Automatic annotation (TrEMBL):
Organism from which the protein derives: Agrococcus baldri
Transmembrane segments: none
InterPro entries assigned: GlcG_carb_metab_protein, PduO/GlcC-like, PduO/GlcC-like_sf
Name of protein: Cobalamin adenosyltransferase
Stored SUPFAM superfamilies: GlcG-like
One Pfam short name: HbpS-like
Amino acid sequence: MTLTLDDARRIIAAAEARADEIGQPMNIAVVDAGGNLISHVRQDGAWIGSIDISISKAWTSRAFDIETKDLGENAQPGQQFFGIHTTNGGRVAIFAGGVPLSREGAVVGAVGVSGGSGEQDQSVAEAGAAAL
């Protein structure tokens, strides 16, 4: 099972609709099962600094098959994954906005969103994931 470009476009469209609804321009990335970028959108006005962050959130979510907000909670001092963000060349993102994408019970990729608050990023990512 894989994600297609059409799948990625549908996920991004749903995420963009949510971002528009909340009035926050976002960067939205979709990666495949191997963590490879399928598609990325930077909405008008979204921070250029969030381009790489959105891609890293998608990659992290797929690399560990976990929502990045949950990984972040477990990466705080005293928690089991403290320091994980320093691994993989610093590519691991430990804040909200990365959500694995599943099909028939198997993780087939992930969506990553950056450009707003953690709650906003998570909301937009969840909207994108729901489109799959």
